[in-house]
Design a protein that fits this description.
single chain, 12% strand, alpha+beta, 11 strands, 3-stranded mixed sheet
Length: 470
Amino acid sequence: MRNTKLFIGRKIRELRETHRLTQSGFADRLGISTSYLNQIENNQRSVSAAVLMALAETFRLDLAELSTGEGDRLLSALSEALTDPVFDSYRPTLQEMKLVTQNAPGFAHALIAAHQAYRRNSEQLASVDDRIGHSAGLGEPSPYEEVRDFFHFVDNYIHDLDLAAEELASRLGIPERDPSAALPEHLLTKHRVRCVRSPAEDEFLRRYDAEARTLHLNPFSPVSTRSFQAAFQIAMLEMDATISAIVRDAGFRTAEASEICRIGLGNYVAGALMMPYEAFLTSAREFRHDLELLATRFGASIEQVSHRLSTLQRPSRKGVPIFFARIDRAGNITKRHSAAKLQFARFGAACPLWNVHQAFETPGRIIRQLAETPDGARYLCMATEIAKGGGGFRAPQRRYAIAVGCEVTHAGDFVYADDLDLTNRAAFDPIGISCRICERTNCAQRAVPPLKRRLVVDHDLRGAVPYRLD
């Protein structure tokens, strides 16, 4: 059984300091001893239900704010970093890593960043060529990686932009009005920007001509894509100041990362404008997260709906904690976020036993899987293939698979769990995060050995792989 004890010492300490109380004064108001509070703040003891109720009643604390999703993401990233052989001289226990992430998250982030720099240096030095010695900043993350981590650690939710987009959607009558009509009309009346069809030879989804006040949209794109691009342009015209402030506060290392983040934040607004928070959350619950029904309701694509579900992290109004990923045919994860316990590997490909890979074999269908990770956590997983193309016979088509899922305790909130036997342990497929950190010893699909296990090679025995794990 999973450990459900709640260790939130840092949050309790921050709450006490916000109210400018000593430990003794804070403990008195909660009706507990000072020594017990001291142990809670140092994560030596978990928080009881009685203390949680006292926090809620005395300090008006929203218990939803005590979600451990952020800690799970940080713990997962730290655990993966520490599997690297460079740390072989010391292997911290799970409890030690939890203490670090809970009490010193800044230190954990710094260690993860240092490990990423080490990996990048190692990979570049491993392919020595004539550029070695002439490249600057080998240890720095790429701009794309830096932005990816920014969204990951803010829980893929940007409060100020989400509220602004919801308020604008309300004024435009979305979702009661079709966004494909409401958004171009708003661009015209508010900004004197006309939406027109791009020429057939134009390869871009969106091309904005500021001087001519014209937004060119690719006519071969689906309606949901054209709506999204119109919403993005509105974000750039109306929310530039807020976006700029967020980018500035993020403190990116390079101008490239800042510009990539601006695009990401514009995309965030576009999704929030087409699928305003409260309306979308209500519909998700009403439709039991049926992706196709939600797509129809909001004039969006299944990918847009899936991505939006992963952003439902508003304080006190959170949605079901889900994971979302987009994967190409080579197994590269091109989008990812998880509010669930499951966290995606930061390096390497996804587990080959995960049903997202099978989605390419069944285009047009949503396939389901019950899965269990090595830590005993169980999940409901959905996957489907999507294709992006258009523009004639010779136009290239991009094919991806998207995956959405939740911990099995939330499976009843999803229509896809109907008729599945959630109580039968044999119905759950064993999956991992990635081969390099997976500890399963009997996986026939293992691609590479785990980093922290010694290999035993017997010339007289041969299984699925030519070694055993000690």
